Amino acid sequence: MQVRKIEDAINSPELPISVLQNEFGLDGARALLVLAVTEVCNFFNVGKTMNATQVAITVDLIIESYFYLKLEDIKLCFHRAMRSYEAYDRLDGNVILHWIKMYDADRDEYCSLQNSNESKRHKSNDRAPIRCGYDEFWDNQHKLAEAGDEEAIERVKFHEDLIRKMREKKSFVSQPFIVRQIEKEENK
Q: What is the spatial distance between Cα 38 and Cα 43, in angstroms, rounded to a whole number?
């Protein structure tokens, strides 16, 4: 899968590094990340590049600190770095870890924004208009209760008890729908 943006990496079917480590062992996860880091090292033409030991240490630090990222995330991070960063004659683990840290911050911001938008969608759905009014709802509940629906019978009984208590207290009678229910009960 070709990843071009954070959304692609998040939605990719790839597994996080921690799961890859469980599936292929630590050496398997290391091997995959060594290939990715080596690709970055080969891309930049710098005088001071990383040796095998530095690559191995950097890979171990990535596994330790960014175990929740997918290989697609690492790939996207490195491709972004290849497109937009200058190595200034130096490429080492610190530079690579800085790139991942910045990518991770962008990824967190993206996920946070997505969660916020999702929450707003759910909240707006929660405010959807009720399909029937209060009076209509209780009329339907009474019909269901008369037809023998046990749950409707319980709801109607509870509702009638509540209306009776509210009528006695009088302090709750300010709500128009309560007034209508009391009037309905009195007219029966």
A: 9
